[in-house]
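User: Hey, my collaborator sent me this sequence without any context and asked if I could get a structure. I don't really work with proteins. Can you help?
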Amino acid sequence: MSHEIPMFYDLAIILACSLPVLFLSRRIGLPPIAGFVLTGILIGPYGLGLIENLDHVESSAEVGVILLLFIVGLELSLSGLKSTPGKVYLAAVAQVVLTTALVTLVVVSLGLSFSTAIIAGFVVAVSSSALVLKGLADKGELNSPMGQMVTTICIVQDLAIVPMMMTVGILAAGQLTTYEISARAGLVAAWLVSLYLLGRWVLPMLLRWLVRIQAAEAILLFAILVLLVVGAISSVAGLSVALGAFAAGVILSENEFSAHIYSQVQAFSQLFSSLFFVSVGMLLDLRFVVSHFDTVLAVSIAVLLVKALVIVAVSQPLGLSLKQRVQGGFYLAQVGEFSFLLLSAAVAGRLVTHFEFQYLIAASSLTLAVTPLVMQWAPHVAYHAGMRIGRDDPGAVAEPDALPSRPKPAVLIVGYGLNGHNVARVLRESGLYYEIIEFNPQAVRIARLEGEIIHYGDATHADFLSHLGIEDFDSVVLAISDPAATRRSVVTLHRLNPDAHLIVRTKYVAEVEQLERLGAKLVVPEEFETSLRIFVELLTHYHIPPHIVAAQVEAVRSQSYGTLRGRNVGVDRLAQILMKRLVEAVPITENSKAHAKTLRALGFTNNDRCQIIALLRDGCTVQNNVLETELLPNDLVVLYGDHAALDDGVHKLSGVS
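Assistant: No problem. I've predicted the 3D structure and written it out in C-alpha cell form, which is a compact way to encode the shape of the chain:
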C-alpha cells in the first residue's frame, strides 16, 4: 500500500513558497492576494516548474472558491437585498448587457469569429465577486451606498452566468431544441423556488429543533450540510456549485447563528481561497506573456478602463456622486473567477483556439492579479476625479454619508446569565443601546423571542468579533463564568478594540490583577462586591455621612480591592479617614429620652472622645454649666468626635423615651 500523497507535497511546496513571497509583498505594500498570485506564477509549470500537475491544486482551489463565496453570502443581508431599489438592479443588468455588447463588437471588428467575440464579451462582463466583496468587507464599505451598488452588480453578474453558460452550450452544440431550452429554464426556476422554500420554511424549523442539542459543532455541521445540499441542487439545475454556495450563505445570513458559522468557516476559507489565487497565477504562460507582452498589457488595460467607464455610465441615474461611481467602477473592473468556468466550457466546446484562450486567460489573470492594487488606489483616483469633474457634473448629488451600523454609545454584553440580564435591564431602562453575545443556543432563542438583539457565538474567536463589528462598541461588559474563557476573551477584545471600556466580572480574587494586565479597565470580583455591600451597610448604620461612605468605597475600589485582599496598600489611608474627628449637630425633640435631662446625666464628660462643643437654645449659645443644664425641646447639641464616638453620642441624645 502506497503512503505517498502527491497532493500533500504540492500543498507543502505552495505554503513553503507563499510565506517568503507574502513577507516580501507585505514589505513593499502589496496585498496578500497579489502575493498568492505571484507565488503561483513563480512555482507553476510556466515558471520554475516546481508544480507541473495542476489537478490537485485546481481541486483545492475550487473548494476555496466555494467556501469564499459561502462566506460572502453570510456577509450579505437578505433583507438588505430586498430593500435595494429596483433601479440598482436595472443598472446592474445594463452593465452586463452593455459590456458584453461593446466587447463583442470590438472583437468582431478585429476579424475574429462571432463565437469567439461573444465568449470574450461574457468573460469581460463578469467581475470577481469573491475578491470584490471581500475587499469591500475588509474596508468596511459593504453597507455604504457605493458598496450596495457594487454588491448588487456582483449578484446580477453571478446570476448572469446561468444564461451565459446556456449560450455557450448552444454555441457548442450548434443548436438546441426548444424543448431543451425550456427544460433548462424550468430547472433554474425550480432552483429559485427551492431556495425560497428552504430559507423561508425549512431552515427555521430545523434550526429550532437543532437548538435543543445545545452543541456548537451541530450548528457548524448543519451549515456545511446546507452548503452541500444547495450546491447539489444548483448542480442539478445546471448551475455551478460555487453559485449554490453563495446562495446557501445568503439564506443563512438572517439567523442568529450566522456570525458563529462565519467564524468557524473563515479559517478553512482562508486556506483554500489562497490556493485559488495561487492556481490563477499558475495558469499564466510566462513565455506567451513575454512574447506578446505589449498586446496582453494593452488588452488588460483596455478591459479595466472599459468596464470602469461602463459602470460609471450605467450608475448615473442612481444619484451617486461621481467619486462613488468612479470608485465602484474600478472595484469591478477586473475579470472574475466565473470567467474561467466560461473559458473552460468554451475550450471544451472548441469555440476558441488555444491562441485565443491564452490571450483571454493572460489578460483575465493580469486584471485579477492587479485588482488588490486597483482597489487600494481607486479611492484616491475617484477623489481627484470627483474634485476636478464632479463639481461641474449636473447629474451629481451630494454624497450621502454611510449610515452607522450602530448608534453611539453602544454596549456589548458578553454572557446572558443573571448578571447579563441585570446589566441589560439597567441599560434598557436608561435608554442606552446594547447588544448581547451568548453561547447557549436555548438562551439565544428565548432572548430573541423577547426582542433582544442577541448573537450566538464565542467571544474568544477574533473572526466572530470582527464579523460582529466589535469596533462599533464603546463599552464591553464581560459576564461569563468560565475563567479560562474570560481571560481569552479579554485578550481578544482588547486587541480588536483597545479603546473600549472593558468591564469584567469574575468569581476569583486571584484573577483581578491578571485580567487588568490583559486589558480590562475594571474587574469586579463577586465575593468582594458582597463584602463591600456589607461594609457600606455597616458604615451607614453607624450614621457615617454618605460622602464619607462613598470615599471608603472609592478607596477600596481604587486599589483593585487590595484592602479587602489583605494588601497594605490603602489601609493607613482608610484608617485615617475612619478615625477623623467630625462635627455633628443633634436636635432635641419632645419625645427624646434626653428631654429634661442634663448632658452629664446622659453620660457625657469633658474628657470623653465625644465632646460637647456647644449647646444652642433659641439661636443663642448657653454659656455656663453646659453639662449641668437640663435639655429642652428644640435645643441643638453640637458634638465633636470620631465616627464611633459620635454614633454613640447621637444615640444617647436622639433615642426615644
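In plain terms: The domain at 410-520 is CATH 3.40.50.720 (Rossmann fold). You can pass these C-alpha cells on to your collaborator as they are.
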